[in-house]
# Entry
Amino acid sequence: MINFDLLEDSVADTHLRFLAADPVEHIVIDNFCDATKLLNALNSVPNPEEAGSKKSRDYIFAKNKFEKADFDLLSPDFAELKAELLSPRFASWISTLTGQKIFIDPEFHGGGIHQGGEGSFLDMHADFNYHPVNPSWFRNVNILLYLNQDWQESYAGQLKLIDGRLTNGKPTLIEPRFNRAVVMFTRDYTLHGYDRIN
# Structure
C-alpha cells in the first residue's frame, strides 16, 4: 500500500527539506500510497453520522469532526495500511526522515480517520506531547494522509501551519489533496489547524 520505494529512494533529500521547511519542520509528500488501493480504502469509509463514529475529542475547538481509531476494521486495504504504518520498515523510514527514533502508537490514540463535514473547522493548536495512557511515550510527529478526492481550493479547509514562537508569523497553507501526506514535528510551537470547510 505505502509507496516505500519512492519514500526510501529520496529519504536523504527529504530529511534535509524536512529540517529546513518554513514555518516549522515538515514535509509534503504526494503519491504516498498506491492510489488504487487508497481509493478502494476510501470507498469503504461510511457516513460518520450514520455509522456512529465518535465525535472528536477536540470538541472545544472543533466542529462537525469525527474520528475512528480502529480504521483497519473498515476494509482489507485499511488493514494493510495500518499494518505497514506499524511495520519496522516504516519505523526505519520515519526515523531517518526526522532524525529521531520513532515508533507508531499501535492504538492510534488521537489518530486514525478524522472526518470533517461541511462547516467543520479546527482552531490553531499544538498537540499533546505525552501519551495519556503511556506517559513515558513522547509524541514526536504527526503524519497526516489526506483522502479528499477531487478537492477544490474553494472548499477551504487547507492545513495551516504557524510557528508559535513568532508573534506575526504568516501561516503556510497546504492543500489537502488525495494521497498527499504531511509529516511534521509535534512541538509546543508547531501550531496547526484548518478554517471552516465550505
Remarks:
- The longest helix spans residues 88-98.
